[in-house]
């Protein structure tokens, strides 16, 4: 039995480095703590949590990163239940308001749209199981289904324009949720949390890892596994020796630094999988108002087709489509941005951004709501975050067209004489729950156990 070794001779002499104090790294650390295996966590930034990033607001915490918990049969959901973190209010799926060229979409068109949306969702799901269609992007497939749906409908030209904009919003939703793909992520149910949400979950995880075992502001620039021990080199020149290492850097980080982070370099197969697999770039901007201008019960306002602008624009405003009130901070509206939006936003100051969003909302919603001015914004740009370099992973068309098991290639450890010298964890390595915090935590536990199993089998 494994526990026979714990704290014993074999694991006593082993020391492990964990790169990253996100959920994958913290879960691995927690496991080593339970087992009495020596470890050090190196975290490049000055905080723990990684892409779980709560910040204090009013009587709770808003979340720059993860916000919902996927599925109920997992450890993260257990923390949610145990600490009463479920939101007392749910998002009202009926509370959508869609505005196209400044006008609310009418019921007739909504009903037609609903039929298209539900049949297309089914088709996309079916496509997910059919490898042959992966030479087409999700967006191309949606357009194909849309064109064949629209043709037999007897709609006026202006009604068709509204439907085309609804289609644009639909595609945007896919881009938000899946970044680019609509295939086999296991969605499960998504639990909505209260105002403490991920702050409390993070607190539970960190409470099990002593502070002195996490080295903050310690960016690892090289992992050298040519010798008997593995040398971890930090950006300020200090180096440390370990028996095994768990790397939890995001896929975005690995894409950027895979050639300089490892000595010797990663195998061509692993490198190619890192290149192929998708990594998205979503972000949120929290808009603070002195009081809400939107009606109670509105869960989302979507804007497509800008007043006074014809055709497909390419400006930032064209990416500002989805606005959702916070469920508990009643004066906060959250705008979700994907596509080219985050890059554009990263070049603007807060006051430039406030002006653009104020104009956008007042111009396009003037016939629907009396919009007031934004007081302040809060944002964290994941695409320019030095350590994330994007939001979360997705199965790309390249991965699908290769017919390779890239998630496995991404998590395969580097073994030297059977010894796992470098292990790979992080959301992008979990087969069932990649993209998610649940997947990240599962991956940390998986790699900690891989290391334990090896050393306890000696
Ligand atoms: C906007 C947004 C919304 C999201 N919403 C949800 C959601 O609702 N539900 C959900 O389940 N998931 C959501 N996610 C995804 C979720 O946040 C991630 O899947 C999860 O947090 C990833 O955890 P991780 O440990 O794999 O990686 P990370 O959290 O990225 O942790 C890796 C850590 O390693 C550090 N690091 C990297 N490289 C180095 C280095 N060289 N040296 C030292 N330290 C390094 C980083 O600073 C970071 O702290 C969202 C993500 C974003 C960006």
From TrEMBL:
| Residue spans crossing the bilayer | none
Which GO terms of the molecular function aspect are on file?
A: polyamine oxidase activity
Q: Which Gene3D superfamilies match?
A: 3.90.660.10, FAD/NAD(P)-binding domain
Origin: domain of life: Eukaryota
Q: Where is the Amine oxidase domain?
A: 23-452
Protein name from the UniProt record: Amine oxidase domain-containing protein
